[in-house]
Amino acid sequence: MDPFVPASWLEQHDGVRVVDVRDRWEYDSIGHLPGAVNVPFESFRSDEGEAGKLPPRGEWEDLLSAAGIDADDEIVAYDDTQGVFAARFAVTALLLGHDPAKVHVLDGDFSSWQREGETTTDAIDERRSSANRTQSDDVDPKPAHYVSDPDAETPLVDFETVNELLPAVEAGDVTLVDTREDWEFEEGHLPGAVQVDWRELVDEESRGLKPEAELRALLEARGIVPGKRAVLYCNTARRVSHTYLALRELGYEDVGLYEGSLTEWEDRGGEIVSE
Q1: How far are the Cα atoms of 7, 118, 167, 206 from residue 115, in angstroms, in the given order?
Q2: pLDDT tens string 129-186
Q3: pLDDT tens for residues 78-128?
Q4: pTM of the entire structure?
Q5: By percentage, how much of the chain surpasses pLDDT 90?
Q6: Which residue windows does the record flag with biased composition (Basic and acidic residues) (predicted)?
């Protein structure tokens, strides 16, 4: 599994479905990667979907089908917000059954790509001849028939599971990770949680992940170590998606995603600790 792929990887791989999750006006007016289809973040964001925050499976299938994406396609998503919205797209795909080996986030974002990479505002990239044009060059694609896999294993954990894990968190056997900002954590967090703002994992210059050695040192200083179960949450499951993919990029295997996050936890009367 390679959750994050650099621009050089994308340039070397043909037939990849590139997905731009920015707003439509950004895609049209500012430009996009050649061949990218637009699937805005709000189109797959659901307040009342599967597991609390995922879009209903049927809506997700319709959305990807309209974008010309098949269940066996390799996908690279990007945004212009250091990858956090693209990560949500990728994790949504994973949680609804897309092959983990075929779902990636561009390491960096549109601003990073734009420094050296080619962009376009064309509906179809006219710079390639029709003879050389592939399906990925067409951003008004022929609809596909996307079918998700409801039986795929996912890292999701629910309210009851997190509640049952609290003694293990207190004992130091499980690390509960809050991926929000410092001030949010101080106002209220789950008992025993450690705080890692997802932006701490991002390099300001490259707009992608920090070097591996820096990431490992940062995480291990917070008690997030390989081989020890980690369960992640934020407010509404957006920021946690980026941290989840970053941990998988580093080879962490036992990582749970609390999809309901703090919003559900509070709604269901879970204990909140403030500092």
Answers
A1: 11, 9, 49, 10
A2: 333 333 334 456 778 999 999 999 899 999 999 999 999 999 999 999 999 999 999 9
A3: 999 999 999 999 999 999 999 999 999 999 999 999 999 999 987 543 333
A4: 0.91
A5: 81
A6: 124-143
Name the percent of the chain in helix, strand, coil, to the closest 5.
35, 15, 45
Question: What are the residues whose beta carbons fall under 8 Å from the beta carbon of 254, sequence distance 6 or more?
Answer: 227, 228, 229, 230
Is 149 among the domain residues?
no
The DSSP code sequence of 25-57 is: HIIIII-B-TTPEE--GGGG--SSBBTBTBPPH
- State how far the Cα of 218 lies from the Cα of 223, in Å rounded to an integer: 9
Phi then psi for residue 189, to 5 deg, are -150, 170
- Collapsing DSSP to helix, strand or coil, 239 comes out as helix
SS3 243: helix
Domain with residue 23: its CATH number is 3.40.250.10
The amino acid present at 266, given as its one-letter code, is E
75 lies in which domain range?
Answer: 4-137
